[in-house]
Each structure stands twice: as structure tokens, then as C-alpha cells.
Amino acid sequence: MTETTNARSRTRKSGKGVKVERIFTTPGVHPYDEVTWERRDVVQQNWKTGETIFEQRGVEFPDFWSLNASTIVTTKYFRGALGTEARETSLKQLIDRVVLTYVKAGKEFGYFATDDDATLFEHELTWSLLHQVFSFNSPVWFNVGTKSPQQVSACFILAVDDSMDSILNWYKEEGFIFKGGSGAGLNLSRIRSSKELLSSGGTASGPVSFMRGADASAGTIKSGGATRRAAKMVVLDVDHPDIEEFIETKAREEDKIRALRDAGFDMDLGGKDIHSVQYQNANNSVRVSDEFMRAVEDGKPFGLRARGTGEVIEEVDARELFDKINKAAWECADPGVQYDDTINAWHTNPESGRITASNPCSEYMSLDNSSCNLASLNLLKFLKEDDTFDVPTFQKVVEMVITAMDISICFADFPTEAIGKTTVDYRQLGIGYANLGALLMATGHGYESEGGRSLAAAITSLLTGAAYKRSAEIAGVVGSYAGYARNAEAHRKVMRKHQAANDQVRTLDTMDANIHRAATKAWADVIELGEKNGYRNAQASVLAPTGTIGFMMDCDTTGIEPDFSLVKFKKLVGGGSMQIVNQTIPRALKKLGYQGEQIEAIVEHIANNGHVIDAPGLKTEHYEVFDCAMGERAISPMGHVRMMAACQPFLSGAISKTVNLPETATVEEIAEVHLEGWKLGLKALAVYRDNCKVGQPLSDGKAKAKPVQDAAEPEKVVEYRPIRRRLPKRRSSQTTSFAVGGAEGYLTASTYDNGELGELFLKFGKQGSTLAGVMDAFSIAVSVALQYGVPLETYVEKFTNMRFEPAGMTDDPDVRMAQSIMDYVFRRLALDHLDFETRSFMGIHSAEERARQLETGSYASNEGDDVEGELENFSQSAATKEAPKVSAAQASSGAGAADVREVSPEIHSSAELMEKFQGKAADAPMCMTCGTKMRPAGSCYVCEGCGSTSGCS
């Protein structure tokens, strides 16, 4: 490792440091003293093997941090050997380790105007991290303030030339980066093709052959010490003579996987036979030019060029080559596409070299042999109680975070000397955000709507504008980046392009108009200050996957992504788990104008079905607000592309995002996505068609062979049958007359001696009519099932919210509206025969209870019955099937308690919960650490159980 320090000559330029504004903190009060702390036990198991993979008891976190956040921080970020005094045991220690290192370096390198500014900076940074307002990328939490090399960057770009020394050095440098848990990308286009001659007269091997060696190296390093795959990106230019071989590498390997799987070999990801398959440790991307894309549109030939001379050595049909890219992506999701001319048109340092590659997740694009450290803001933290976006606070936090990120380069270590020099000379940063999907839903914007895209564009513009404004201010204090003088005009030109793109944004409501107004002012300041001071950073912003840090901030959604699903899997402190309807939904429904009981019914429908289709009372024009990445109303592929296009003009780098397509998608549809991505000005694009990859473990293991039974011993079969418990000859009954939508009927319910319901009869329609006969048959069927032990709550869950005529107003004060006769009947039965907690769990309350809730905030009749306590403090007993409890505040939100449900012990993640609702397996890999099914995050996957990612985190 090479330690790189900033030149002492680059200290205060004007004798003045940065003035720090107070944002969140209270004068004279330390941020730690403003929150309530509690001790928790973090025990993590691999649910498939039952093995305890981590245990640390008595760790300290704020009481508002979720179990998931505290578990991931404890397992991933606490330093020191377990069981020793050196082990960190509190979030305070972790935050102090990082923040105090930043403040010390900021003072040492002249960033602060006074010591008071440094102290305020320390407190504001601490408050923001403590309250999950933003997070640095994972390497900061791993390394800063420790005795290890203080690597702060998650993203690396390497370089390889056309020589054996350079190729072998590539293997070595990648190995060091993988060993540290990060990822790297590079472009192999300088390497001569297999169609060109060597100086000795022989034929060159070509880049694809050297990819095999790098792939094997990455697989060995991963299996030798890490639990996740090595993250790497391999790029090849579209005019390289070996481009067709490169395009087809992974698609052909998928054919091999299918053949071996069908022959009985274990070809699951992590399976014992998968290692025979090549090229599985990298993401591949083709770097396409405008010339090539125009040739595709026009149906013209396209020239493949020799690496040494640049002469055309072969002509191909551009459309045929484009079709091969699309077909390979259809077959196995590789290669992705990077748009070379668009990328370099927004390059601030063209005099120092072209941008040829990206990091593995495709959001960081800069010079060869460079790195970028990332940080992401939690957008939902800036949405105030009155549903307005806190624009001034957002801008101040961006400026604070950019200052901290730039300070980190002063003391950071880097894996190679070349990377260290480029990063210190150009100081590339990657500020971004998470929770965009949740913010859009909470504010009543559909992800695919014009309003949603306008809001996202305005926020992204303000993010980058505020970042470059602070970068120019810092340049006035400690100097611009070393490569700025050489690239000054190009850098200023890109700033003007950002400003012009901001001028093109068309706002649609007050929220995005206010944000856009601030962004316009910020870009004006960027231009003015940049002309005077230059800029401290060659790049400022990207949109990263935010997988692990997204969990640290308790985000509902990652990066630029929409919500994964409306129903989530949630772990509880003390053990147990539940499914919970995304708590953004009641807020969104309230924003859209729905009232208490309407919200309660819609949320209950979502809890039962996992989607909003046919939710009682929900207007169809509002469905789009609740569209998700998965499920019945999944966002369309072009919906993802257009959202990326709305944000891309305001980013220094690119966007880590995969465009998901259904299994039924065609090659032509993938071609349309790739073509539109180019036309809309994206820098990179990756697609994924459901179930296109064979080597994904979609089940929890293979069926075990049954032991051979001794032929002399017949197999004993124990058969369990339910026993019918008939009602006594004389039983208590209660008859209720009712009217639904003007149609009248009678409900007779008979009970056992202990008051338990055992029989019901429905009279509806004239005697002898078809309707009356159907009602009689239905009543008998339900009565017999009740006597065989089917719980009444099962029927209540199935038949409430069922919709058909007659429907409407009833004459029952406890059930004022009914969607159908069945909806009314089973709500009435629930009120008469189920206990309060079970009904509350289902969101069914009497008129008296609803009135009490309006007065006291609780449906319960007294303190002893009150369903109090936060979800995170509830320990669920699966053995007794005790219903989860919610706080009075949650109940009063209109969501009732229908947003909380017990989950099957076979479900361990939101992806598996989606499988339950969809009735089909989610196409996602299993986490190699804890066995949980992962879910998408940007262009990689993240585990909800332990925070592991399949990318560069």
C-alpha cells in the first residue's frame, strides 16, 4: 500500500478558511446527549445451516435505529477483535473514530476559518450521521481512524496497455483491490486483437484470452478469503476487432451451464461445479460511439480498427453487431452498454486523457488509474411534517458533506502509487442520494410520471450545484485541484452545460419549483465562483447503489431505485420477524386526500395482496404512485430509462441502475432500451431479463435423496386427520338483520358453550331462488370448516374487502360501509367473536373504539389493553402466534394494524415475501454469508440480513 499525503504547499490561499453554518445542533449540547441510547444483542445466524456466524452482546445504539441497521453496523463496521477490549461496542465509538479523524485533518490542512468552525463541523457531522441524514461509503467505516491503511474509496479504475508487463500488473493490482473488499474496472481495448500480428510475427492472443486469467484470479481471491464475489468491470470498445467474441463470451458460458446442469452437475452460484465456467466474476460492457449508433440507425457498415495503427481491418454490418449485443444481453444480461461520446462530452479533464472505463457498478467514470470516495444523503430526512422539502437544509448538508469528502483525500491511502497520484491531483468525489423512490411515493408522485421525473431532476441538479459551489469555495481557501490549470476551460464548459440543462427543467408543482429555484441560484454561484477560484474537485456527484449504507440509514429504497415492493420483511429486537406494509404508504395516501378509514382499508388490502389493484376506495389514477420495481404493477422498462435520463445531465458521473424486463421481453425490446438510452443522453445502461441466468440459486437447496428403505421393513405411515367437533343439539345463537346498499338480509351465528363460533346461516334472497340456495350452501361449507378447526380469522382475512354488488352504506353503526355482503358479514362476525388484539391486528374496530381513538389516540379501552410500543421493541412469539403490536401513533396514522403481519418461518427477506405474493421465485442470488435471498440495489444485489453486497459497496 502506498501512503499519499497532500502537498504542504497547498494550504490556505487567502488566509481564510471555510465558515461552518449551524444546521441541526443545539448550542452547548453535544449531539449524543440529545438522544436516548439502549443496549442490544446482535446475534446473526445462517438460517439454512443454523450456524451462528456472528455474536456481540450489549452493543449501544440510539433507540430509534432499527434492528437491521444496528445489526449491519455492528457486523460490518465495528472494528477490533471480538471478545477483546479493542472491540468497538457503541455507535458513539464508530462515529467518533471517523469524524474526529476528518476534523483533525481539516484543521491540519487549513480548511476551517477558526477552531470554533472546526468544533461546529464536528458536531454537525456527528449529528447528521447519528440521525441517519447521510452516510459515507463502506471503506470509510472500515478503515478511517484505524491502524489499517486508511482507504476511503470504494470505486477504482485501472489501466492496461498492450504489453505482457502491463497485463500481469493488471492481475496484481486487481488482486490487491479485491483483497481489500473493493471493486475495479478497466478497458482492454489497447490490447491487440487476435486478428493482428505480434512484432515477432506470431498472432496476438487478444483481450478475451487474457480475461480468462483475470477471471480465474478474481475467483481464487474471492474463494480464498471473502464471502462475496469479486466486483469487476471489463470494457471493450465497439470498434475492437475482437468485439464479437467479447460480446458472446458470457452467453456461450450460459449455454455451458445449462448443458452441465441438465447432465446433473451442481451449477448454482456457489455450487461445487460452477468453477468450471469462465467469465463469471466480471460485468462486461461494450463502449459504443455515436458513429456506431448512427450506423445502426442508418443500416450502414462499421469499421473495426487495428489497435496499433487505427486502420480499418474489417467491416461489419452495424445492425447485425448491435443485434448480437442485444441478443447476448437477452440471454444472460451481459454485456451492458456505455455511451462513449456522451461520457466524454461531459468530461472535465479531457486534456489529461479520455474516460475509457468505469467502476464495476458503472456510476464512477473518470481517468485511468483513479479512485472515488462516495457519500449518500437520505432524501426522506429532508421531507418535513407538512410535506414540504427542506431546501435550505438540504443544500447546507450537501456543502458540509462535500467538505468532509474532500478532507478525506488529504489523509487517505491508496492501493497503488498511480491511483494515489491521480486521485490527489484530481480529487474526484461522488456525492449522491438514497430513498428517492420513498420520497416520490410520500409526496404523491408516480415514479413513471412527469411530476416524479421533474422532482428527481430538480433535486439532482441542486445536489450537484451545491456540491460544485462548495468545491469552488474550498478552492478559494486551499487551492484548486492540481490538474485544473491544464483543464480549466473544459471544466468551466461542463459547468455551463450543467447550468444549461438546469434551465431546461420544467417544474410542475410548488415543491419542485422551490427546489429548482435554489438549484438555479446554486449554478449561478458555481459559474461565478469557478471563474474566480477554480474548483477543488474534478468531479462531484454520482448515483451509487447505496446497498449496505442504505440499510445503515434505514432507507426504504436504494439510490435512484423505486420501492422494491409495498410489503417488506422486518426483523424485531428480541427475536422474531414480521411483514410490514411500507410506512410511506399511509403518508402518501394522506397526501392524496384519503381519510382514516379509507387509508386503513387500503393498507389492509396491501397487507393481504402485496399490491394496490382493486384496493377499496383507491382511485385508479392514484395507482401509479404505488408502482414498484417488482409485483403486479411493476414499473415499465422505459419508465426506468426516462428516470435515469431526467437525472443524468446533473451528475458528474453516471447512475448505477439495472433496467429490469419481464421474462417475456424480446430481443427487439432490449434493442429499443439500448437505442433510447443513447438518444436520451445516458452514459451507461444495463438490462436484466427475469430468469435469463441459469447460475442463480432460486431455491433454498437441492432435494435430499431419501434413504433406501429396508425391503424387509414396510414403511410406517402416520396419518393425521382433523376431527370434527359438532355443536350441541341445543346451542346459543344470535340473529342480526342487516342492509347493504339497500339490500336486506339476516345473519344467524351459533356458538359452542365456551362462546366460540361454530355455525352460521345467511338468509339473503327469496326462498327457493338461486341466490338463496348459494347462500345456504356457502353457510354449510363455512360451518363445517369451523367445526373442523379452521380459525374464524382465516375467513375474516379472505372475505373482508371482497368487492361485488350490492355494496355501499349499511345500517350497522360499527360497519358503515361494505364492499359486498361477504365483506359486511365477516366484519360483523369479527366484531362479535374475535378478541380486541386479533381484530386490531386486522384493522377492524367498532364505532366506539374508533371514537375513542380520535379522542385518546388509542383504540384500546384502558392502559392494560393498549397496543403500545414501537415495532422494533416487540419480541414476537411464533409458538403462541401472538399478534404484533403497534404504537398508538401508528394506529392513528390511519394505517390501523393491518400493516403488520406475522410471517412464515420460511421467509427471511423482502424478496422471499414477494415470492409469496407473486407465486413465483424471485430471480436473485442467495447471500453467501447468511443464506438470505438478496434483492436488487443499483446494478448489483444487497442482502437485507447482513448487508453484504455483490458489488463494490
Automatic annotation (TrEMBL):
Names of required cofactors: adenosylcob(III)alamin
Residue ranges, compositional bias (Low complexity): 887-898
Segments forming domain TSCPD: 727-831
Region of interest (Disordered), residue spans: 876-904
Pfam families with a match to the protein in the record: Ribonuc_red_2_N, Ribonuc_red_lgC, TSCPD
UniProt-listed GO biological process terms: DNA biosynthetic process
The keyword Nucleotide-binding is assigned to this record: yes
Keywords: Cobalamin, Cobalt, Disulfide bond, DNA synthesis, Nucleotide-binding, Oxidoreductase
Enzyme Commission number(s) from the entry: 1.17.4.1
Role: Catalyzes the reduction of ribonucleotides to deoxyribonucleotides. May function to provide a pool of deoxyribonucleotide precursors for DNA repair during oxygen limitation and/or for immediate growth after restoration of oxygen.
Listed PANTHER family: RIBONUCLEOSIDE-DIPHOSPHATE REDUCTASE, VITAMIN B12-DEPENDENT RIBONUCLEOTIDE REDUCTASE
Listed name of the protein: Vitamin B12-dependent ribonucleotide reductase
Upper classification of the organism: Bacteria, Bacillati, Actinomycetota, Actinomycetes, Micrococcales
